[in-house]
Amino acid sequence: MNSERRALLYGLASVACWSTVATAFKLSLSYIDIWQLMFYATLTATLTLLLVVILRYGFSVMVASFKQHWRLTIIAGLLNPVVYYIVLFKAYDLLPAQVAQSINYTWSLVLTLMAVFFLNQKIKIADLAAAGVCYGGVFLIATQGNFDSFVGVNVMGIGLALLSTFIWAGYWILNMRDQRKSDLGLCLNFTLALPVTFLLCIYFSDMRVPLLGLAGAVYVGLIEMAIGFLFWSSALRLAKNASRINNLIFLSPFVSLIIIHQFLGETIYSTTLAGLVMIVSGLLLQQYAHKDGYLE
Question: Which residue from 10, 32, 110, 248 has the least number of CB within 10 angstroms?
């Protein structure tokens, strides 16, 4: 099998993984709280990443990388998984899955806007147009078309979902300065974050969880935090044309809506579909504007 076909298969596998996680978040949070989900998911992801990294590079390489990049590891590990997933899980706890996951997909737009301030990048008119379209879609989804009233809108949930996009975009800006191999860096981040999530779980919650809650947390850690990322990084590494692989991610939110409806029983509103189409259209416009380089 040639590298381009393997890249496509890895990319589709990533989309399949990430299309299920909105449902997995909501199901898990019906049995356990955000602190328990954070710890047990991080534990699962850390063990998975450690196994992969030690087999690929060896334990000594991992230790040497940590010694060289310990400051970066501390900052990145606190951002992802700790702060990012606390905010994201709370947003999912407060919002319907279809709303939280739609807003979450605007992070790449936020990345471009933040790069203006943190990486001295130039903003384009197309970026501003994309922002208008995307956030118009967010507004449509949040209000469900009731533009004259915010009754029923969970403002805190919407705010946390939007905040999660800024945290994730900030993490990727940090990644642009990261000289570590992507899987090795992620492994170090999670290894450092694991004791933090343990202490948070002990302080704010309880280690005892029901079996179904534990199963959900293991699924989230394995599929969302570890395997999905490993598949995606492999796809980008093998692809001759990364933009073709990047476009696959736009399948994920629509597949996710089907899974949300089937397994959570949420009625998928026409405003959600229309808003999501606006968000994806805005992201495609932004991507086209930066076709010669994601950030110029």
Answer: 248
